[in-house]
Write a structure and sequence with these properties.
- Helix 6 (191-200) packs across helix 13, helix 7 (244-262) crosses helix 10 and helix 17 packs antiparallel against helix 18 (606-633).
- 43% of the residues are buried.
- Strands 1, 2, 3, 4, 11 and 12 form a six-stranded mixed β-sheet that branches. The protein has a five-stranded mixed β-sheet with strand order 18-13-14-15-19, sandwiched between helices.
- By secondary structure, it is of the alpha+beta class.
- The protein is globular and about 100 Å long.
- The chain has three domains: 19-243 and 325-407, Nucleotidyltransferase, domain 5 (2-Layer Sandwich), CATH 3.30.420; 412-521, Substrate Binding Domain Of DNAk, Chain A, domain 1; 525-632, Substrate Binding Domain Of Dnak, Chain:A, Domain 2 (Up-down Bundle).
- It binds adenosine monophosphate.
- Adenosine monophosphate (AMP) is lined by residues 24-27, 215-216, 244, 286, 289-290, 293, 356-358, 360-361, 383.
- Adenosine monophosphate is lined by residues 24-27, 215-216, 244, 286, 289-290, 293, 356-358, 360-361, 383.
Length: 634
């Protein structure tokens, strides 16, 4: 009778398991290590709706409560400004970054600058600010609970994945999302490395592997050597702001242009600023892009898109390939760079694994095959393999999986600023982790008693072109002639790629160190408070979330019915029962509006709303059946 126990009752033990979570730009997934008949294998855990992946979408209602995953995605059209998707593109980034500035007008929600730390944050129409880490944590909590329900144990340890090309701030911000979700993040693994772990765990897959990972928001390429359980990353490269969302944006622009042409609209900026229109077109753009991975041609129909005008167009695979070719080509130079860094030629690569939803696009597969001169390997599931690899890394850490060694690399060069804004590298990119390295620096002025240690990440020779990831003042050096003090600066990077920098002056024994922390403005105490708040309000939050999801479901059903009525108005309005059904719909619409306005009021009876929604659906269905049988008879 387990099914009758409440969630809280049956979860008592804290699991020793370490779950693996792929927190993706578009979709996320969770996996664990299953032990069946003495064989350990990574397995995806379905979410509470039985889905193997969960859309990385979080919507907020006016009480600040979150709706997550498919429920959030489905209500996006009605609530575009408070529905946050693809927020991984913002995580750990400054508002003034060019990539963020470019995104401002392509998403229907508001991205703002957080005044404490200059980072890109999100703002709801209710005036609440959310950090991308907070939004990410909502998805992590959702997946953590799915795992807990599935395993019937409390889960508090996880391995998270990040794009290989994420810098320190982005990694830290992802770890922070884990902490807000109440998870101990034991390791942060690079996504392509995780994919290779899952691919290569089968001993038959030894050899040189290139992982080409193009997801919703990021592109990574990693080259690995797999040999009897030792996974050595030879190089990695990529672009943290290139993915399916950019393909969607190109298709969105194309659709706007066709619509403007079809209806002789000269100024489309007004349409583009309409968040509901933008959301409808974005969804249609993504749908058609996906359809064109399976068909040569698809149609896009959006009735009453603007000013009683309908959009009706066809899109071919050939056209899609043509308008997005520049984006596909943008992945080529990182691939070449990774090959160069690994000191390999394309023919040295034995297998090319395709990861991330975008790699289902036939044109991408053909461009990559051509580049390597051999067919790409499509045997791995591009949506699941990263989470499976994260679970394997979790299994290695918990001791469930033995005889596997992972040697990952740092994706970007690390160093400090020296005189004149010059970047002095200490640890070159693609150095195997963990790593520790010390270099000696000195003062530039006689009698100088302090120096600023400013730590940067990047490949450019002047610091202003790289990313400042942390700084500290090193004071207390005894006055000496310039060049005399010997300041030992040590960089220590752990297996997560998290950096610790320390400085010590030899003659005086002065020493100081910092762990580079994200500039998110959230202290450990604040994060702990958020975790405590979430735990304290869990039962109420769950109940409220269920209410909101039910109201949203009814709203979607009624909106779908209203849309069909509009579309087929000419035919169905002639039917005798039409006025009665319409009146019933309007009644339920009023009910929904009332429930939406009072969704926190627990005394309202949701069953009544459910009953009337079902009733209207039946009536509408019958009406359509009657109309179509009349039409067929005539
Ligand atoms: P991921 O971040 O790996 O979940 O990848 C999601 C991205 O892949 C989104 O931009 C999707 O639109 C895209 N995608 C998913 N399936 C397909 C498909 N069959 N063809 C083209 N793109 C796809």
């Amino acid at each position: 009778m387990l099914g009758l126990l409440s969630y809280r009752t049956f979860i008592r033990r804290v699991s020793s398991k370490v779950i693996g979570i792929d927190l993706g730009t578009t979709n996320s997934a969770v996996a664990y290590i299953r032990d069946s008949s003495n064989r350990k294998s990574a397995t995806i855990i379905e979410n509470t709706q039985g889905q193997r992946t969960t859309p990385s979408v979080v919507a907020y209602n006016k009480d600040g409560k979150a709706i997550i995953g498919m429920a959030a995605k489905r209500q996006a059209i009605m609530n575009p400004e408070n529905t946050f998707f693809a927020t991984k593109r913002l995580i750990g980034r400054l508002f003034k970054d060019t990539e963020i500035q470019n995104d401002l007008n392509t998403v229907p929600y508001k991205i703002i600058e957080n005044h404490l730390n200059g980072e890109a944050y999100l703002e709801t129409t209710f005036g609440e600010q959310k950090s991308p880490s907070q939004v990410g944590s909502e998805i992590l909590v959702y997946l953590k609970r799915a795992a807990e329900e599935y395993l019937s144990e409390e889960v508090d340890k996880a391995v998270l994945t990040v794009p290989a090309y994420f810098n320190d701030s982005q990694r830290q911000a992802t770890k922070e999302a884990g902490r807000i979700a109440g998870l101990k993040v034991l390791r942060v693994v690079n996504e392509p490395t995780a994919a290779a772990l899952s691919f290569g765990l089968d001993a038959k897959n030894d050899g040189v592997v290139a992982v080409y990972d193009l997801g919703g928001g990021t592109f990574d390429i990693s080259i690995l050597d797999i040999d009897s359980g030792v996974f050595e990353v030879r190089s990695t490269s990529g672009d943290t702001h290139l993915g399916g969302e950019d393909f969607d944006t190109v298709v969105v622009d194309h659709i706007f242009n066709v619509f403007a042409e079809q209806h002789s609209i000269t100024d489309i900026s007004k349409l583009k600023n309409n968040r509901e229109i933008m959301q409808r077109i974005r969804e249609a753009a993504e749908k058609s892009k996906i359809a064109l991975s399976h068909f040569k041609e698809t149609s896009i129909d959006l009735p009453f898109l603007y000013d009683n005008k309908h959009l009706n167009m066809r899109l071919t695979e050939e056209k899609l390939d043509k308008i997005t070719l520049h984006l596909i080509n943008k992945t080529i130079s990182p691939v070449k760079k990774a090959l160069r860094d690994a000191e390999m030629d394309p023919e040295d690569v034995d297998e090319i694994i395709m990861v991330g939803g975008m790699t289902r696009m036939p044109k991408i597969r053909s461009v990559v095959s051509e580049l390597f001169g051999k067919p790409v390997n499509t045997t791995v599931n591009p949506d699941e393999t990263v989470a499976l690899g994260a679970a394997i890394q979790g299994g290695i850490l918990s001791g469930e999986i033995r005889n596997v060694l992972l040697l990952d690399v740092t994706p970007l060069t690390l160093g400090i600023e020296t005189y004149g804004g010059v970047f002095s590298p200490l640890i070159p990119r693609n150095t195997t982790l963990p790593v520790k390295k010390t270099e000696v620096f000195s003062t530039g002025v006689d009698g100088q008693t302090g120096v600023d240690i400013r730590v940067y990440q990047g490949e450019r020779s002047l610091v202003r072109d790289n990313i400042l990831i942390g700084d500290f003042k090193f004071a207390g050096i005894p006055p000496m002639p310039k060049g005399a003090p010997k300041i030992h600066v040590t960089f220590d990077i752990d297996a997560d790629g998290i950096i610790n920098v320390s400085a010590a002056e030899q003659s005086s024994g002065q020493a100081k160190s910092i762990t580079i922390i994200p500039k998110s403005g959230l202290s450990d105490t604040e994060i702990q408070k958020m975790v405590d708040d979430a735990n304290a309000n869990k039962e109420r939050d769950d109940a409220l979330r269920q209410r909101v999801e039910l109201i949203t479901k009814s709203d979607i059903m009624i909106t779908d019915t209203e849309d069909s009525f509009k579309r087929f108005h000419d035919t169905i309005s002639k039917h005798d029962s039409f006025p009665d059904v319409l009146a019933e719909i309007q009644k339920v619409r009023r009910q929904i509006d009332h429930f939406k306005a009072h969704d926190a009021d627990e005394s309202l009876d949701l069953n009544e709303l459910k009953r009337s929604t079902d009733h209207v659906q039946q009536l509408a269905l019958q009406l359509f059946r009657d109309v179509s049988s009349t039409v067929n008879r005539n």
